[in-house]
Amino acid sequence: MNENASKSTLQRLPFYLDVLKKRQANGEEFVSSSIIAKELNLNDVQVRKDLASASKLGGRPKVGYEIQELIDDIQSFIGCDRIDKAVLVGVGSLGKALLGYKGFLDYGLEIIEAFDSHSSIIGDEIKGILVSPMEDLAESIKENGVKIGIITVPASVAQEVADKLIEAGCKAIWNFAPTKINVPEDIIVQNENMASSLAVLSRHLNSKN
Amino acid sequence: MNENASKSTLQRLPFYLDVLKKRQANGEEFVSSSIIAKELNLNDVQVRKDLASASKLGGRPKVGYEIQELIDDIQSFIGCDRIDKAVLVGVGSLGKALLGYKGFLDYGLEIIEAFDSHSSIIGDEIKGILVSPMEDLAESIKENGVKIGIITVPASVAQEVADKLIEAGCKAIWNFAPTKINVPEDIIVQNENMASSLAVLSRHLNSKN
């Protein structure tokens, strides 16, 4: 096991879980690194290295990895077998969309409260999640031990919101605003750049026309 | 201009647009590459190279780039000044969330119809977008000239859906299913790996505890 698994290794781990769970659903008990590598278009050496970061299990020659144990090890390594509490700031259409998504719990994320600065929406419940005023943000984070802040405000106020989340105690920021935010070294930011993805798709179509 | 701008250049272009629009909103007319680089924590040379991919404008010494012209050039290069039609397949909670998001139009994406295999939801409208049966998918893509397919089905059926989208004429796939999909060379896939992002955040919190 390696406490310092690279970000790209971490990003691949959910895909290994996906392959392992599919194989298991088909009744298989063992899988080799070369089969996983082939399914994901990855290099065999890379797969073995990634798996060694997350699990002390070795793949046995001619048999491979024991699927259930490997699933348990990866989930425990990532921490997705444990629930992290999150708050979401910015209840516009994207914020509402994410509040309505029930799949995050499968990955260990629970959004416990949402915040917005517009009085018209404060006090509403979106899929059972209360929208509170920004003034209550810091207290909620501290009282509930919230570690993840989800940012779905416009780009122009994303930095300000990130600063507030971090000051109140969040250690991880999931940023959906299409802008760069700066954070202290011990804080992790994961950017979800839907604008960047759309730029890649749109340019591809544009250059074909 | 470079017809073969790299994917990472394309992914950065929306961030340049963000900086340019903020500066413009502040009443500025010109901006230097070094200011853009500083705001985005990028290298000055990288910024100038990226901008040269999208625009034939040069930054003038001591003055910089003319903001409005650079915005126009980048938008036209990406193609986000033009609307691309999309269909969404898989109207579960993530699919509904995306159908409810009104921000895609700003980036040139219009979802015109949704598809699902569950009869209980077929015929419903989600934020004005009709949910149709899978049998109608190919005809809708062909008739409406749809170029982008958005996949929000479970991982286990994502490949099958991608194959149908491509066979009907989609040239770009926006994949939100946490699995790898294989496509022909002339098709572009952009993966939105929320599971990967959550793995990075969760591991970071996990390793601190």
Describe the protein.
2 copies of one chain form a homodimer. The longest helix of chain A has 19 residues. The radius of gyration of chain A is 20 Å and the shape is globular. The first copy, chain A, has a 7-stranded mixed beta sheet. Chain A has a two-stranded antiparallel ribbon with strand order 1-2. Chain A is α/β, with parallel strands linked by helices. Chain A has 8 helices and 9 strands.
Please describe the structure with a list of short key phrases separated by commas or semicolons.
homodimer; 209 residues; alpha/beta; 7-stranded mixed sheet; two-stranded antiparallel sheet; 8 helices; 9 strands
Relative helix content of chain A: 40-55%
Identify the quaternary structure here.
homodimer
Low-pLDDT regions of chain A: none
- What structural class do the secondary elements of chain A suggest? alpha/beta
Global outline of chain A: globular
The description of the largest β-sheet of chain A is:
7 strands, mixed
SSE order of chain A in H/E notation? Answer: HEHHEHEHEEEHEHEEH
In total, how many beta strands of chain A?
Answer: 9
C-alpha Rg of chain A (nearest Å): 20 Å
The spatial strand order of the largest sheet of chain A comes to 5-6-4-3-7-8-9
Distance between the termini of chain A: 49 Å
Mean pLDDT of chain A: 89
Tally of separate helices of chain A: 8
Strand residue percentage of chain A: 15-25%
- Largest inter-chain interface? A-B, 65 and 65 residues
